[in-house]
Amino acid sequence: MSGLKLLGTGSGVPSEILTNDDLAKLVDTSDEWITTRTGISSRRRCAPGETHTQLCLTAARQALDRAGLNPEQIGVCVVATLTPDRLTPAAACVLQKELGLGEDTVCFDLNAACSGFVYALYTAQCLLAAAPRKYGLVLGAEVLSRVTDYTDRGTCVLFGDGAGAAVVEWREDYPSIHAVLGCRGNTESLLIPGVAVGVPSYIHMDGQPVFRFAVEVVPQCITQVLDKAGISLDDVDRFVFHQANQRIIDMVVKKLKLPVEKCTGNIARRGNTSAASVPLLLDELVRGGSLRSGQRALCVGFGGGLTWAGALLELA
Ligand code: UT7
């Protein structure tokens, strides 16, 4: 057995708060519709001048500090994102310079949309097994406001900005994260056209098929992770779901008969921050004392791709 433990977490959260009432001034919507259909009351948005890099740096520095590590000790740095400041250099390369990571640190970005952080954790576990330094810095970070169409009420009420970071350690005697990753190549339901179109590139989402997809794959993913790990639902201390829609989480909780107190989230204050949502929540749980040393969190992401990813992470 070999694998990872979580040593420290951090968050980078922009200053601007965008409430449902603020959005109701932009599009034909209401606080009542957004709250009841999604569970979201407000989300954070970068103000002009606030950057993806700044959010990442704040989150990464906190995580390193709480892990008690120096940047030179990091062997692998992976940033899960689909909205970096630049297509190249990667956000992870910018962190290499700004944090002072070693020049031989493996640094790159990864795009698996809302599953990205869990994909990145698994990637870090694999790479750290071979790396000379056994500490990894894994982030999920998004400035989704850059790709949000604030005239489309079907999407603009959902998304927020933020970054979450985790410092992990790989050891031979640590448990595997028993990751289960999947992808169902789908280019219609959830996409951002990107540089190909040459015009502002916004999120397009056909919400209902994505909703049905999530309710189908998340319980399957959880069951597969538990099977791989040889443990039961009762052995999990916290379920850390991608915060896409409170109704999705409620349906998964009902389907698997999960204890609601182990499934609390932050969607009401953060909205959907894609790759950042799992590490942002993980950080809140650790800082709030809801995930303690020796306890296990089952993290689950799902979304664009369409992708899904689940993994177990124990707090050192
Ligand atoms: O993070 C990646 C993964 N993403 C997800 O998991 C998202 C999954 N999907 C969802 O969460 C939901 O499908 C949404 C929140 C996006 C939409 O909720 P819904 O209950 O599926 O609504 P709908 O799209 O079926 O729309 C129902 C009605 C429509 O009106 P009509 O055609 O019934 O008259 C929409 O035009 O609600 C209308 N509507 C709105 N009304 C007020 C859609 N958005 C809004 C809005 N305010 N913001």
What does this structure look like?
The protein is of the alpha/beta class. The protein has helices at residues 20-24, 31-38, 52-67, 91-100, 116-130, 153-156, 207-229, 246-256, 267-270, 277-287, and strands at residues 3-12, 16-19, 42-45, 74-80, 106-110, 135-143, 161-171, 180-183, 190-191, 204-205, 238-241, 296-303, 307-315. Strands 1, 4, 5, 6, 7, 8, 11, 12 and 13 form a nine-stranded mixed β-sheet that branches. 52% of the residues are buried. The model has no long low-confidence stretch (mean pLDDT 97). Bound molecules: oxa(dethia)-CoA. Residues 29, 33-34, 37-38, 114, 153-154, 157, 207-208, 210-211, 214, 244-245, 248, 272, 274, 303 line the site of oxa(dethia)-CoA. The site of oxa(dethia)-CoA has 20 residues, from helix 2, helix 6 and helix 7.
Output the keywords.
two-stranded antiparallel ribbon; 316 residues; 9-stranded mixed β-sheet; alpha/beta; binds oxa(dethia)-CoA
The description of the largest β-sheet is:
9 strands, mixed
Radius of gyration of CA atoms, rounded to a whole number: 18 Å
Which series of helices and strands comes N to C? Answer: EEHHEHEHEHEHEEEEHEHHHEE
Mean pLDDT: 97
Q: Which word captures the global form?
A: globular
Q: In percent, how helical is the residue content?
A: 25-40%
SSE layout and pairing:
Layout: E1 3-12, E2 16-19, H1 20-24, H2 31-38, E3 42-45, H3 52-67, E4 74-80, H4 91-100, E5 106-110, H5 116-130, E6 135-143, H6 153-156, E7 161-171, E8 180-183, E9 190-191, E10 204-205, H7 207-229, E11 238-241, H8 246-256, H9 267-270, H10 277-287, E12 296-303, E13 307-315
Parallel strand pairs: 1-13, 4-5, 4-6, 11-12
Antiparallel strand pairs: 1-7, 2-3, 6-7, 8-13, 9-10, 12-13
Helix pairs in contact: 3-4, 7-8
Oxa(dethia)-CoA is lined by residues 29, 33-34, 37-38, 114, 153-154, 157, 207-208, 210-211, 214, 244-245, 248, 272, 274, 303.
